[in-house]
Each structure stands twice: as structure tokens, then as C-alpha cells.
Design goal:
One of its GO terms (cellular component) is plasma membrane. The chain is α/β, with parallel strands linked by helices. The mean pLDDT is 84. It is built from four helices and six strands; from the N terminus they run αβαββββαβα. Strands 2-3-4-6-5 form a five-stranded mixed β-barrel. β1, α2 and β2 form a beta-alpha-beta unit.
């Protein structure tokens, strides 16, 4: 009754099942591993001291930015140069913008420094000037933003002097000098100048250090792959049973032989 399993058509079906089930199990296991890695990273981050409470270190000692160094106080010395306003940023559920100045260091590279946040919109709100001369700033280190960062504007077309995303990639075409692939936010609204109503921008948690939506997406994908594996096996048994019943009916004369 089960000789049909040896026909060319069923060889193809059997080969598909033999390959599909291990593939689904492998992908489900991989997604589960990704979820467990994120949980482990989150637990490690919870056990670490608050980055903002750790001793400040020179900027170069904390680069490149990682989950370990993100939020750590970084010290840099230089002179403020170009200023950019970063619109569309909320603080305490209020609309406003960041005041960002580039600090030219002795290395020739510039460090983006978010001196503070102002309510309102760029162009209609007075912006305090940055301190003149050489200054030493201590700010919480942050990784460059990307298109998935909250508040980022990647649509382009912003007025001159405004910036949609804080990153070296977005600044490289706006200034004639190199920019660090990182930025700092000052715990105080300004570094020696007049705050002018600016409020400090809190440092954000490092990406990948918490149980965010992506972590639970990995868990959801895990379940989907295992369901796919079970579905493939279920459909194979169902097809085999239907084919066997059809062969039995032919043998009993209950149905015409399709061959």
C-alpha cells in the first residue's frame, strides 16, 4: 500500500521534507540563541554600575563606543567650532531641539557635543553661544545615531545649520575636518557659557543592552520556525495518509485506478 513512497514524485516530496525540517529547526534554534544572547547582555548591563557614576576617562580610552563604554563620562579638550541645531527632539514630552557644537581637539578631529536642549523650533528660539577659547568638557559618551534612532530625521531637506542625525556620516559632508564616530551629551546645559534656558539631554542606554522589541521578535521568530517544522511534518503525514487511502480504495474496487 505504501509503494507510492518510492515513486519519483514522492522522492521529491520526501527530499523536501528531509531538508525543510532540519532547516526550520536550525533557524528556530538560531533565533532562540539570539534571544538568549540579548537576555544575557541585558542581565550583564543590569549588574554593571551606572555608567554615569564611573570615573571620567579621556575620550580616546573609551573609543570605539560599545555597550561597555556607552554612557561613560568622557573628557575632551578643544575649541568649539561649527554649531548645528538638531530639530524634532523631545524632552519631558515637550517638542524642541538639541544644540550641538563641534569641539575641535588637538588631534584635528572634532567631537560632536550636545550642549543642551531648548524648547521650540530652530530659528524661532534664541540659542546661547558656545564658550570661547579652549575648554575641557566632560560628557556622557554616546554611539552615533542611525536611521532607527528615535527622533532622527532622514528625510533630508533641512535648512542650513540644521542636522537630522548625529553621526560622523551625516557630518562628513558638512564640515571640512574629520569627526569622531561618537558624541557626548553634557550633564550640565553648558560648559562655561550661559545656559539660556537649555536643559541637559540624558544619555540613552546602549543599543542591544536591553530587552527591546527586537529581542521579543527573535523569540517570536523562534516559535514561527518550530511551527513551520511541525506544519511540514503534519502535511507530509496527511499526504501519505490520503495517498494510502486512495490506494486502498483502488484495491477494494471502491474507486477507479487513476493510473
Amino acid at each position: 500500500m505504501y509503494r507510492f513512497l518510492l515513486t519519483p514524485r514522492w522522492w521529491g516530496i520526501n527530499l523536501f521534507v528531509v531538508l525543510a525540517i532540519p532547516f526550520c529547526v536550525f533557524m528556530g534554534t538560531w533565533q532562540l540563541g539570539r534571544f538568549e544572547d540579548r537576555v544575557q547582555t541585558h542581565e550583564m548591563a543590569e549588574k554593571r554600575p551606572d555608567p554615569g557614576t564611573r570615573s571620567p576617562k579621556p575620550l580616546g580610552d573609551l573609543l570605539p563606543v560599545s555597550t561597555e563604554t556607552s554612557g561613560r563620562p568622557a573628557v575632551a579638550t578643544g575649541t568649539y567650532s561649527d554649531q548645528f541645531l538638531v530639530p524634532g527632539r523631545k524632552l519631558d514630552d515637550r517638542d524642541g531641539f538639541y544644540v550641538l557644537d563641534l569641539l575641535r581637539t588637538d588631534s584635528g578631529k572634532a567631537l560632536p557635543v550636545v550642549r543642551g536642549w531648548l524648547a521650540g523650533s530652530p530659528g524661532s528660539t534664541p540659542v546661547p553661544a558656545a564658550p570661547a577659547g579652549e575648554v575641557t568638557v566632560t560628557g556622557d559618551l554616546q554611539a552615533s545615531e542611525n536611521s532607527g534612532t528615535t527622533g532622527v530625521d532622514v528625510s533630508g531637506g533641512l535648512p542650513e545649520g540644521q542636522l537630522g542625525m548625529i553621526s560622523a556620516a551625516s557630518l562628513v559632508n558638512l564640515v571640512p575636518y574629520d569627526v569622531y564616530d561618537a558624541w557626548v551629551t553634557l550633564p550640565e546645559p553648558d560648559a562655561g557659557g550661559t545656559s539660556g534656558g537649555m536643559k541637559p539631554v540624558p544619555a540613552a542606554a546602549a543599543q542591544g543592552s536591553g530587552l527591546d522589541l527586537k529581542a521579543f521578535q527573535n523569540l517570536g521568530y523562534t516559535g514561527e520556525w518550530f511551527v513551520f517544522a511541525g506544519f511540514v511534518l503534519f502535511m507530509w503525514f496527511r499526504l501519505v495518509r490520503r495517498e494510502a487511502e486512495a490506494a486502498r480504495d483502488v484495491q477494494l474496487g471502491l474507486a477507479a485506478d487513476a493510473d
